[in-house]
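Entry type: protein chain
Record version: 2
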Amino acid sequence: MSETVVIANPAAAAGRVGRTRELLQAQITEALGPCRFVETERAGHATTLARDAAEKGVSRVLSLGGDGTHHEVVNGLMEHRNGPRVAFGVLPAGTGGDLRRTLGVMTLEDALKAIKDRPVRSVDVGHARFTDDAGEEQSRWFVNLASCGMSGLVDRIVNTSSKRLGGAASFYLGTLRAMAQYRPARVSIKADGRDLGVHTISLVVVGNGQYAGGGMRFCPEAQIDDGVFDLVVVPDAGVVRSVLRTPRLYDGTIAKVPGVVTARVREVIVEMIERTAWLDLDGEAPGRGPVTFRVYAGRLRLAGAPT
């Protein structure tokens, strides 16, 4: 079965996707040809729709929404045996927009041109095994960037706010609020079997892509097809110094801060010693540490991938 399915989140971009659905469908169809459009109705629905599309043997699934929608679609594809054969594509519309930054497609027009003109390529996808809020072991896939520490608390603040100020401002303000609330977790870290020691953390980041938090460039050298994560361990520095180093989160120089640990790794294991390391996966907050991050090289076929 050769078909393109577009999974649209009508609530994305403060409801603009739903309000302009006819115009968006016409624009996408004009660029890519006939598509079947389906809309999400609740949290997690995009995962079900993507899994159903993979079950039906479609050739391409496109995600129209923000990073949360893209995250759900990737999980739906990776959960199905046909998933690695389905081409996944990003049609950006949402608050955070970090995956589109990694892919270099800042607008819908950019994304449609990339999907039309660039060949489908195999890229890496990440997997996380963690503890959910009920204390149960869970697992999810992620395509862009994952972390634990203060970042998951930022997600919880932002995702329960109105986001009317836009992605960058929402995440910046959410970060400042989280700095005031976060009690630094103490963790032990192993990377590819190597003991990296015990750290009191602000963040432990594994980057398949480069951006998170509405434009913060945690992993400026990360590539989505190199078979490894870029690991960044940011130690806690207290509220005042954390605020002062916030610009380094945006300009890609956080790794130059004294005490920050970096590496290129395939697997990272974070074990808990004290307090809570809140989990972030592609801007979603499904749980907390302990967590194991693992990269699966070439597992996802990406339409519109950067060359």
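Comment: The longest strand covers residues 287-302.
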